[in-house]
Write a structure and sequence with these properties.
The complex is a heterodimer. By secondary structure, chain A is α+β, with helices and mostly antiparallel strands. Helix content of chain A is 48%, strand content 19%. In chain A, strands 3-5-4 form a 3-stranded antiparallel beta sheet. A two-stranded antiparallel ribbon of chain A has the order 1-2. In chain A, strand 4 and strand 5 (92-96) form a beta hairpin. In chain A, helix 1 packs parallel to helix 3. Chain A is globular. Chain B has 5 helices and 5 strands. The longest helix of chain B has 26 residues, at 4-29. Chain B is globular and about 40 Å long. The relative contact order of chain B is 0.15. Classes of the chains: A alpha+beta, B alpha+beta. Chain A binds chain B through residues 15-16, 19-20, 22-23, 26-27, 29-32, 34-37, 39, 45, 48, 50, 52, and chain B through 10-11, 13-15, 17-18, 20-22, 24-25, 28-29, 40-41, 43, 49, 52, 110, 112, 115.
């Protein structure tokens, strides 16, 4: 697969990831616990399937910039730019590799926030 | 102590954020298409923990619902007559508006557009003034 396609897939996934970050943030601010609705982060732009996940389960996906939350079976949309890292009852964690992984890391807003904090602490 | 209505109103806040994000994604992925012809698949905002009913609607119709913080879009017959009234109906969804009073304060406070505006304002305040940035000076918000 060419790098442009890998980048496109990573950018699509990152758009869904950013949407989910806003949902998690809203739930924390509004003080809603239990299972929360997150959007499948697969590369298919038409996909709007919902995955019910607790905030802490979502946080554990987010600890790695290359990890994405995906509905089981939707990994085919990723066109082999990575592989399944974890399988759960209603979702899988997909890890981006290669150039797609690099782009996913660059687009992770949290990773940049951490580096600013590190800079401040230094 | 929180009432059932308060808990539902807060859950609605999360589903309204979910729908705003779904609409934003569709809007981004179809940026050259007019909102009146972009169809989005949203989720029912009824606040019932078990409900994730899909609601198809046009993006422009959804935008009109979001203009009023006390309004939500729900699946037909998912309204709670104790706290809200149906103000518009379609084959696939109903638009409800919470009555004035305490129950209506939570929808206003949890309105995704209001939250986004507050976040934007906070972000703007956190930015150093242009002159400080261009001169590379340290700046404390």
């Amino acid at each position: 697969m060419d790098r442009l396609m890998e980048e496109r897939i990573a950018r699509n996934d990152a758009a869904f990831r950013s949407a989910n970050e806003n949902i998690a943030e809203a739930a924390a601010e509004i003080h809603v616990d239990g299972a929360l609705p997150f959007i499948c982060e697969c590369a298919n732009r038409e996909c709007n399937e919902i995955v019910m996940l607790t905030a802490s389960d979502y946080e554990s996906v987010r600890t790695d910039s290359r990890h994405f939350l995906i509905v089981p079976g939707h990994q085919s949309a990723e066109q082999n730019v990575g592989e399944v890292a974890e399988r759960h009852e209603n979702y899988i964690v997909y890890e981006k590799r290669g150039h797609a992984g690099d782009v996913a890391e660059q687009l992770d807003e949290r990773a940049h926030l951490v580096s600013v904090d590190d800079e401040a602490a230094a | 102590m929180h009432s059932r209505h308060d808990d539902e109103a807060r859950r609605r806040g999360v589903y309204r954020e979910l729908n705003d994000q779904l609409a934003k994604l569709d809007s981004t992925f179809n940026e050259s298409t007019p909102a009146a012809v972009v169809r989005v698949t949203l989720r029912c905002e009824c606040g019932n923990r078990a409900c994730v009913r899909a609601i198809p609607m046009m993006l422009s119709d959804y935008e009109r619902v979001r203009e009023e913080p006390r309004r939500s879009v729900i699946a037909p017959d998912h309204e709670d007559p104790e706290v809200e009234v149906v103000v518009a109906e379609d084959r696939f969804y109903a638009v409800v508006e919470t009555f004035a009073g305490h129950a209506s304060r939570i929808p206003v406070d949890t309105d995704p557009r209001r939250r986004a505006n507050l976040k934007q304002a906070k972000h703007s305040r956190a930015q150093p003034p242009l002159d400080a940035r261009s001169e590379g000076r340290k700046w404390i918000a």
